[in-house]
Amino acid sequence: MTLITPEGMTDWPTAGFPGVRVNPDTLLPHVVNEDAMEAALAASTDPADRIMALLLEGHFGDAAEELAEARCNDPESFKLRIYEAELHRATNRFDRAVELFRQLLAESQGTSREPLIHQFLGRAHFVAGNVAAAVESFAKALDLRVEQAADASLIYSSAVALQRARNVLEMAP
Protein backbone atom coordinates (compact mmCIF):
# COMPACT_ATOMS: atom_id res chain seq x y z
CA MET A 1 0.00 0.00 0.00
CA THR A 2 1.26 3.47 -0.81
CA LEU A 3 1.20 5.84 2.13
CA ILE A 4 2.03 9.50 1.65
CA THR A 5 3.18 11.78 4.43
CA PRO A 6 0.76 14.61 5.21
CA GLU A 7 3.39 17.27 4.43
CA GLY A 8 3.58 16.05 0.82
CA MET A 9 -0.10 16.09 0.06
CA THR A 10 -1.70 19.21 1.46
CA ASP A 11 -2.80 20.28 -2.02
CA TRP A 12 -3.93 16.80 -3.07
CA PRO A 13 -7.67 16.70 -3.85
CA THR A 14 -9.83 14.59 -1.59
CA ALA A 15 -10.95 11.30 -3.07
CA GLY A 16 -14.32 11.12 -1.35
CA PHE A 17 -13.32 8.73 1.44
CA PRO A 18 -11.54 9.45 4.74
CA GLY A 19 -7.79 8.96 4.51
CA VAL A 20 -7.74 8.85 0.70
CA ARG A 21 -6.56 11.61 -1.63
CA VAL A 22 -5.85 11.94 -5.34
CA ASN A 23 -2.22 12.26 -6.41
CA PRO A 24 -2.14 15.35 -8.66
CA ASP A 25 0.59 13.84 -10.85
CA THR A 26 -0.85 10.38 -11.50
CA LEU A 27 -4.50 11.37 -10.87
CA LEU A 28 -4.91 8.10 -8.98
CA PRO A 29 -6.27 7.75 -5.45
CA HIS A 30 -3.84 6.89 -2.66
CA VAL A 31 -4.18 6.10 1.01
CA VAL A 32 -2.63 9.01 2.91
CA ASN A 33 -3.99 8.19 6.36
CA GLU A 34 -4.46 4.49 6.94
CA ASP A 35 -5.96 4.99 10.41
CA ALA A 36 -8.67 7.32 9.06
CA MET A 37 -9.46 4.92 6.24
CA GLU A 38 -9.62 1.90 8.55
CA ALA A 39 -11.90 3.74 11.00
CA ALA A 40 -14.26 4.71 8.18
CA LEU A 41 -14.26 1.14 6.87
CA ALA A 42 -15.05 -0.21 10.33
CA ALA A 43 -18.06 2.12 10.55
CA SER A 44 -19.29 1.37 7.03
CA THR A 45 -21.84 -1.22 5.99
CA ASP A 46 -21.40 -0.47 2.28
CA PRO A 47 -19.55 -3.31 0.50
CA ALA A 48 -18.33 -0.80 -2.10
CA ASP A 49 -16.16 0.84 0.55
CA ARG A 50 -14.32 -2.42 1.26
CA ILE A 51 -13.91 -3.02 -2.48
CA MET A 52 -12.46 0.46 -2.90
CA ALA A 53 -9.96 -0.22 -0.09
CA LEU A 54 -8.92 -3.52 -1.66
CA LEU A 55 -8.35 -1.76 -4.99
CA LEU A 56 -6.23 0.92 -3.30
CA GLU A 57 -4.20 -1.75 -1.54
CA GLY A 58 -3.59 -3.59 -4.82
CA HIS A 59 -5.57 -6.68 -3.81
CA PHE A 60 -7.30 -6.97 -7.16
CA GLY A 61 -8.28 -10.65 -6.85
CA ASP A 62 -9.93 -10.07 -3.49
CA ALA A 63 -11.62 -6.93 -4.82
CA ALA A 64 -12.97 -8.90 -7.79
CA GLU A 65 -14.36 -11.62 -5.51
CA GLU A 66 -16.06 -9.16 -3.18
CA LEU A 67 -17.34 -7.17 -6.15
CA ALA A 68 -18.88 -10.29 -7.72
CA GLU A 69 -20.65 -11.17 -4.48
CA ALA A 70 -21.86 -7.61 -3.91
CA ARG A 71 -23.12 -7.32 -7.51
CA CYS A 72 -25.10 -10.56 -7.04
CA ASN A 73 -26.79 -8.99 -4.02
CA ASP A 74 -27.30 -5.61 -5.70
CA PRO A 75 -26.81 -5.91 -9.48
CA GLU A 76 -28.02 -2.38 -10.24
CA SER A 77 -25.82 -0.58 -7.69
CA PHE A 78 -24.38 2.50 -9.37
CA LYS A 79 -21.43 2.60 -6.98
CA LEU A 80 -20.59 -1.07 -7.51
CA ARG A 81 -20.74 -0.60 -11.27
CA ILE A 82 -18.23 2.25 -10.93
CA TYR A 83 -15.92 -0.03 -8.97
CA GLU A 84 -16.29 -2.73 -11.59
CA ALA A 85 -14.98 -0.28 -14.17
CA GLU A 86 -12.29 0.90 -11.74
CA LEU A 87 -11.16 -2.71 -11.26
CA HIS A 88 -10.67 -2.96 -15.02
CA ARG A 89 -8.75 0.32 -15.02
CA ALA A 90 -6.57 -0.79 -12.12
CA THR A 91 -5.73 -4.04 -13.89
CA ASN A 92 -4.87 -2.27 -17.15
CA ARG A 93 -7.95 -3.41 -19.08
CA PHE A 94 -8.51 0.16 -20.20
CA ASP A 95 -10.82 -0.59 -23.13
CA ARG A 96 -13.24 -2.44 -20.87
CA ALA A 97 -13.06 0.29 -18.21
CA VAL A 98 -13.81 3.00 -20.77
CA GLU A 99 -16.67 0.94 -22.20
CA LEU A 100 -18.25 0.51 -18.75
CA PHE A 101 -17.82 4.18 -17.89
CA ARG A 102 -19.44 5.14 -21.21
CA GLN A 103 -22.40 2.88 -20.39
CA LEU A 104 -22.75 4.57 -17.01
CA LEU A 105 -22.42 7.96 -18.69
CA ALA A 106 -25.23 7.16 -21.12
CA GLU A 107 -27.45 6.26 -18.16
CA SER A 108 -26.42 9.37 -16.20
CA GLN A 109 -26.86 12.07 -18.84
CA GLY A 110 -28.48 15.13 -17.31
CA THR A 111 -28.29 13.86 -13.73
CA SER A 112 -26.15 14.83 -10.77
CA ARG A 113 -24.12 11.66 -11.39
CA GLU A 114 -22.93 12.73 -14.84
CA PRO A 115 -19.90 14.79 -13.70
CA LEU A 116 -18.68 11.94 -11.49
CA ILE A 117 -18.68 9.56 -14.44
CA HIS A 118 -16.88 12.10 -16.63
CA GLN A 119 -14.24 12.38 -13.88
CA PHE A 120 -13.76 8.59 -13.70
CA LEU A 121 -13.76 8.31 -17.49
CA GLY A 122 -11.13 11.03 -17.68
CA ARG A 123 -8.95 9.16 -15.20
CA ALA A 124 -9.27 5.94 -17.19
CA HIS A 125 -8.28 7.79 -20.37
CA PHE A 126 -5.39 9.54 -18.62
CA VAL A 127 -3.93 6.35 -17.15
CA ALA A 128 -4.34 4.60 -20.50
CA GLY A 129 -2.36 7.37 -22.20
CA ASN A 130 -5.27 8.86 -24.13
CA VAL A 131 -4.62 12.31 -22.74
CA ALA A 132 -6.69 14.27 -25.30
CA ALA A 133 -9.77 12.25 -24.34
CA ALA A 134 -8.90 12.76 -20.67
CA VAL A 135 -8.81 16.53 -21.18
CA GLU A 136 -12.24 16.38 -22.79
CA SER A 137 -13.72 14.30 -19.97
CA PHE A 138 -12.16 16.37 -17.18
CA ALA A 139 -13.33 19.61 -18.84
CA LYS A 140 -16.87 18.27 -19.04
CA ALA A 141 -16.73 17.12 -15.40
CA LEU A 142 -15.50 20.54 -14.31
CA ASP A 143 -18.12 22.41 -16.34
CA LEU A 144 -20.92 20.26 -14.97
CA ARG A 145 -19.71 20.50 -11.40
CA VAL A 146 -19.55 24.29 -11.62
CA GLU A 147 -22.97 24.38 -13.33
CA GLN A 148 -24.46 22.16 -10.61
CA ALA A 149 -22.79 24.20 -7.84
CA ALA A 150 -21.06 21.07 -6.56
CA ASP A 151 -19.00 21.00 -3.41
CA ALA A 152 -15.78 23.01 -3.73
CA SER A 153 -13.68 19.88 -3.17
CA LEU A 154 -15.23 18.23 -6.24
CA ILE A 155 -14.68 21.32 -8.37
CA TYR A 156 -11.07 21.48 -7.15
CA SER A 157 -10.53 17.80 -7.98
CA SER A 158 -11.79 18.32 -11.53
CA ALA A 159 -9.72 21.49 -11.96
CA VAL A 160 -6.53 19.76 -10.79
CA ALA A 161 -7.15 16.78 -13.09
CA LEU A 162 -7.92 19.01 -16.07
CA GLN A 163 -4.80 21.12 -15.53
CA ARG A 164 -2.60 18.03 -15.16
CA ALA A 165 -3.98 16.46 -18.33
CA ARG A 166 -3.55 19.74 -20.24
CA ASN A 167 0.06 19.98 -19.02
CA VAL A 168 0.81 16.44 -20.16
CA LEU A 169 -0.86 17.08 -23.50
CA GLU A 170 1.19 20.25 -24.04
CA MET A 171 4.44 18.36 -23.34
CA ALA A 172 3.57 15.54 -25.74
CA PRO A 173 5.65 15.40 -28.94
Structure report:
This is Tetratricopeptide repeat-containing protein. Pfam families: TPR_19. InterPro entries: TPR-like_helical_dom_sf (IPR011990). There is one protein chain. 66% of the residues lie in helices and 3% in strands. With 173 residues, the protein is mostly helical. The model is unreliable at 1-6 (pLDDT under 50). The protein is globular. The protein has a domain at 94-173: Serine Threonine Protein Phosphatase 5, Tetratricopeptide repeat (Alpha Horseshoe), CATH 1.25.40. The chain has a two-stranded antiparallel sheet. A hairpin with a 6-residue loop joins β1 and β2.
Question: Which tags fit this structure?
Answer:
173 residues, Serine Threonine Protein Phosphatase 5, Tetratricopeptide repeat, 2 strands
